[in-house]
Specification:
Length: 248
């Protein structure tokens, strides 16, 4: 049985002061959660958020990292730095990073390997554009992204990762994929994992849905057999809403 995992991606929101308020408000609201709960604040708030959630069931995640161990990479953050700040998860290859910051399947793969080497669980994002969906390219595209991100991993490493299927047309738009659409494409992602590592590994990998997931649609999405959790943007910025999703 795969344990569901719901993560909040705060994106570029909340100052450290605001992050402390949000994380503190969340702690009592989610303590009965049956799923794994992760929150991913901006880098500068990792420390304060870690303090707030230290004795809670909430785990800390980051939103990106560089693959090098250290060096002349101005503005970048390494896996060891995230680990030292208390992060157990890191979101990698989010569509916003691919779209605005030139990340590719190759650099996502480098980040995935570096995260695993440091003992951080990657949450690897895949997902198609509206044009790709309308053009019937969704399955081939997400299969390619999945294979690219996982290249060179061992089966042991692959079974512990998390993948987030986030159709780009559903992110921040209020347009959610239907339960059936989300389930179907999460199934495509799982078959892509099976194609590389076999069915046993694919059955262990947890695959989230992300894209306008909120308190209203969480329970029906979470009831779908292929969907093992959610990656939540907008609705993770309000403690009450995120808690409702977590307690779906
Ligand atoms: P929204 O929940 O705001 O659509 O964002 C989804 C997302 O991109 C999470 O990573």
């Amino acid at each position: 049985m795969r344990k569901p995992i719901i993560a909040g991606n705060w994106k570029m929101n909340k100052t450290p002061y605001e992050a402390r308020q949000l994380a503190s408000a969340l702690v009592p609201l989610v303590k009965e959660a049956r799923c794994d709960v992760v929150i991913c604040p901006p880098f500068v708030s990792l420390g304060v958020v870690k303090e707030c959630i230290a004795t809670s069931n909430i785990k800390l995640g980051a939103q990106n990292m560089h693959w090098a161990e250290s060096g002349a990479y101005t503005g970048e953050i390494s896996a060891a730095m995230l680990k030292a700040a208390g992060a157990e998860y890191v979101i990698l290859g989010h569509s916003e990073r691919r779209q605005y910051f030139g990340e590719t399947d190759e650099t996502v793969n480098l980040r995935v390997k570096a995260a695993i080497a440091a003992g951080i669980t990657p949450i690897i994002c895949v997902g198609e554009t509206l044009a790709q969906r309308e053009g019937g390219e969704t399955d081939a595209f997400v299969t390619g992204q999945t294979g690219g991100a996982l290249q060179g991993l061992t089966a042991r490493q692959a079974e512990a990762i998390i993948i987030a299927y986030e159709p780009i047309w559903a992110i921040g738009t209020g347009v959610t994929a239907t339960d059936a659409e989300a389930n179907e494409t999460v199934g495509v992602v799982r078959r892509a994992v099976a194609g590389v590592f076999g069915a046993d590994v694919a059955q262990k990998v947890r695959i989230q849905y992300g894209g306008s997931m909120n308190p209203k649609n969480a329970s029906s999405l979470m009831a779908m057999p292929e969907i093992d959790g959610g990656l939540i943007g907008g609705a993770s910025l309000r403690a009450e809403d995120f808690a409702k999703v977590v307690l779906y």
